[in-house]
Design a protein that fits this description.
The chain has eight helices and six strands; from the N terminus they run E-H-H-H-E-H-E-H-E-H-H-E-E-H. The protein is an alpha/beta fold and 242 residues long. The chain has one domain: Undecaprenyl pyrophosphate synthetase. Strands 3-4-2-1-5-6 form a six-stranded parallel sheet, sandwiched between helices. Helix 2 packs parallel to helix 4. The protein is globular, with a radius of gyration of 18 Å. The two termini are 16 Å apart. The structure holds farnesyl diphosphate. The site of farnesyl diphosphate (FPP) has 19 residues, from helix 1, helix 2, strand 2 and helix 4.
């Protein structure tokens, strides 16, 4: 754990402060029902508000959702367009409710390649909720862990850093997640056991929880199971037990 990370009044041994989720399995959820993949993403987007609420009830203070990776641009155009438009709908339909619930929205990734109508909405949502404090919801959208590290290294070079000034801290401070605590728990739904370029720098000492449950089916019972399992893990951060 980085020394700069603080978890005010939070027992991270039992309850993760920061949970990151790879929402996988929308496509399979749809094909299991002879629907098209887009309908799976629709269903996947639909469950997000209740998932945020449920983690909040467990006193999780930060949630990071992987909505669209830098690699996802390689999917068929119609699927990419559907996901972008679902992100827009999500903000249109839920921003007010999230704001009322004192949730701070943050965006991780690059806004550059996003269409203006999504970029504007994301910027507006982030600005509107910037003073909220009950919970933080990070939307990783057009995000890639490696791209983020490359961008941090470029910033260090542009700022004229000498090699002896390059530290974990100077790199961390230039990532999209600068100032955020590393995830304590990373959940991946959909049965695949990999990181897929998500938070590659930040998830070094994170506890991983993989479940077969497809994202649209993920619900309060799965959340309870994941948090219980997290409470049983012994986190050592490369040290020995006390
Ligand atoms: C992975 O499932 C899911 C995605 C690549 C997109 C996730 C998007 C949403 C849940 C909706 C929009 C996002 C927001 C932030 C509102 P997959 O397509 O890889 O599923 P498969 O492995 O079963 O094919």
């Amino acid at each position: 754990m980085q020394a700069s990370q603080t978890y005010p009044q939070h027992d991270i041994k039992q309850i993760p402060y920061h949970v990151a989720i790879i929402m996988d399995g929308n496509g399979r959820w749809a094909s299991n029902r002879s629907l098209n993949r887009t309908e799976g993403h629709q269903e996947g987007a639909k469950v997000i508000p209740s998932i945020v609420k449920s983690f909040g009830q467990h006193d999780v203070k930060m949630l990071t959702l992987f909505g669209f990776s830098t690699e996802n641009w390689g999917r068929p155009k119609s699927e990419v367009e559907a996901i972008l438009s679902l992100a827009k709908d999500f903000i249109d339909e839920h921003l007010e409710e999230l704001h009322q619930a004192n949730v701070k929205l943050k965006h991780l990734g690059s806004l550059e390649q996003l269409p203006y109508w999504l970029k504007n909405r994301v910027q507006h949502a982030v600005q509107k909720t910037s003073s909220n404090s009950a919970m933080t919801l990070n939307l990783a959208f057009n995000y890639g862990g490696r791209a983020d590290i490359i961008s941090a290294v470029k910033q260090l070079i542009d700022e004229g850093f000498a090699t002896n000034e390059i530290t974990e801290h100077s790199i961390s401070n230039r990532l999209a997640t600068a100032g955020l605590p590393d995830p304590d728990l990373l959940i991946r739904t959909g049965g695949e056991n990999r990181l897929s370029n998500f938070l590659v720098w930040e998830a070094t000492y994170t506890e991983y929880y993989f479940t077969e449950t497809l994202w649209p089916d993920f619900g309060p019972l799965d959340i309870e199971k994941a948090i219980k399992e997290y409470g049983r893990r012994q986190r050592r951060f490369g040290l020995i037990t006390d």
